[in-house]
Amino acid sequence: MKRTERHHLQEDGMAHGLNWLVETIRKYRREIVIVAGALVFAAVVFGALLLVRSHGRSVQSRAIGEIGDLAAEVVLKPEKLADLEKLAEKGRTARLANMELARYWAEKGDWAKAESYLGRIADGRKDLLHYQAEDLKAQVALGKKEFDKAIAIYKKIGDEKPKVYPLDAALFHLAESHELKGETKEALDLYKKLQEEYAQSYYGYEASLKVGRLGLQK
């Protein structure tokens, strides 16, 4: 086939295709307009949702920063506790504010106040804050010499094996709880487990020191 003939055939094919496209658009114009409008509307809604989410995260980040700053300030300026308590009353950051208030009073040795703020932290999401609160509950229990309560909390954390909370920390505190209760064998077994399974971690190193000390007491 000559080049000229092939060129004409290509042009005829293109013309036929364009005609078919034009006719299809004319035939389904209403449906195309509806679909296009729906896509545009979806894009606008999606963009608006992204803006709202971005704004919400920005507001929450500022609030979290504010809580962190207040938590640091109240150590030297107890009058700032009132501001922290306002943030603990409601809103997305209430859990964090209550956690900081509980930590403040626990460090002061006021177990009753620490427990009251811990009790205001709603259960549900098992995120890092949840396990930090559970850890603090156990520390408060140890402060009150409620060893069985602390042991139960740390054992539950160990059984759940959360990805957001270091398991070696929970096991070490569980061992310490047994040690404080006077259950040396149980504590020593856990310290040895930490020494073997978490040799390169901070708690693994601390556990090795505990093994040496408790081993001399036997």
Order of helices and strands: HHHHHHHHHH
Number of helices: 10
The domain tally reads: 2
The chain-level mean pLDDT equals 81
Work out the number of β strands. 0
Q: How does the major sheet shape up? A: none
Q: Pairing-aware structural class of the strands and helices?
A: mainly alpha
DSSP strand content: under 5%
Q: Could you name the ranges where pLDDT drops below 50 across 5 or more consecutive residues?
A: 48-60
Q: Per the principal axes of the C-alpha atoms, what is the gross shape?
A: elongated
Give your account of this protein's structure.
The chain is mainly α. The chain folds into 2 domains: 1-109, no CATH class; 123-218, Tetratricopeptide repeat domain (Serine Threonine Protein Phosphatase 5, Tetratricopeptide repeat, Alpha Horseshoe). Helices cover 80% and strands 0% of the residues. It is built from 10 helices and no strands. It has helices at residues 3-27, 29-73, 81-87, 94-107, 111-118, 128-143, 147-160, 167-181, 184-197, 202-217. Helix 3 (81-87) packs antiparallel against helix 4, helix 4 packs antiparallel against helix 5 and helix 4 (94-107) packs parallel to helix 6 (128-143). 24% of the residues are buried.
Task: Describe this structure in a few short sentences.
This protein has 218 residues and is mainly alpha-helical. It has ten helices and no strands.
